[in-house]
UniProtKB/TrEMBL annotation:
Pfam families: Ribosomal_L6. GO terms for molecular function: rRNA binding; structural constituent of ribosome. This protein binds to the 23S rRNA, and is important in its secondary structure. It is located near the subunit interface in the base of the L7/L12 stalk, and near the tRNA binding site of the peptidyltransferase center. The keyword rRNA-binding applies. Gene3D superfamilies: Ribosomal protein L6, alpha-beta domain. GO terms for cellular component: cytosolic large ribosomal subunit. GO terms for biological process: cytoplasmic translation. Part of the 50S ribosomal subunit. This is Large ribosomal subunit protein uL6.
Length: 178
């Protein structure tokens, strides 16, 4: 029994859900998203302001897709109604970020600044030179872009310099002794 899949997805006000030909489309204030369902594995119903997902058979593949499908639908509903945000922090002397138009300029201790092109479907803001806010309606895209920016200078364990997630804790190591 899927712990995630057995709960229905509540559809908030202002979000329209259409289910047709194995494709579920969700439309809200932040845009529209769609997802191709595995019709032979899971059964999806839209009723009473909620979306319910159930497996068609009791084999392993159907049970796996049951929870996955429900989670994808939940992420779409949340994405078009509220959106997703990921915050990065930059630590280090001279390390900074600045969003300029459609590029994110990063000074991360290299001999040159890194210019990262901002994707069309995401919004990247730098309220402070050491903070980056990435927001959008697709949870996977927000996480992927945050991961790519973090990979440009991951935090190191001795001084903690680098780019890290705001909620991430860096385990610090002791330096060498005399």
């Amino acid at each position: 029994m899927s712990r995630v899949g057995k709960y229905p997805v509540k559809v908030p006000d202002g979000v329209n859900v259409t289910l047709a030909d194995g494709l579920i489309s969700v439309k809200g204030k932040l845009g529209e998203m769609s997802f191709a369902l595995s019709e032979d594995l899971v059964e999806t119903k839209v009723e009473d302001g909620a979306i319910s997902v159930a497996p068609r058979k009791d084999d392993k593949r159907c049970r796996v897709m049951w929870g996955t499908t429900r989670a994808r639908i939940q992420n779409m509903v949340t994405g078009v109604s509220a959106g997703f945000t990921r915050t990065l922090e930059i630590n280090g002397v001279g390390y900074r970020a600045q969003a300029q138009g459609k590029t994110l300029s990063l000074a991360l201790g290299y001999s040159h600044d890194i210019n990262y092109p901002i994707p069309e479907d995401l919004d990247i803001k730098t309220p402070q030179p050491n903070q980056i806010h990435i927001s959008g309606r697709d949870k996977q895209r927000v996480g992927q872009v945050a991961s790519e920016i973090r990979a440009m200078r991951p935090p190191e364990p001795y001084k903690g310099k680098g780019v890290k997630y705001a909620e991430e804790t860096i385990l610090r190591k002791e330096g060498k002794k005399k």
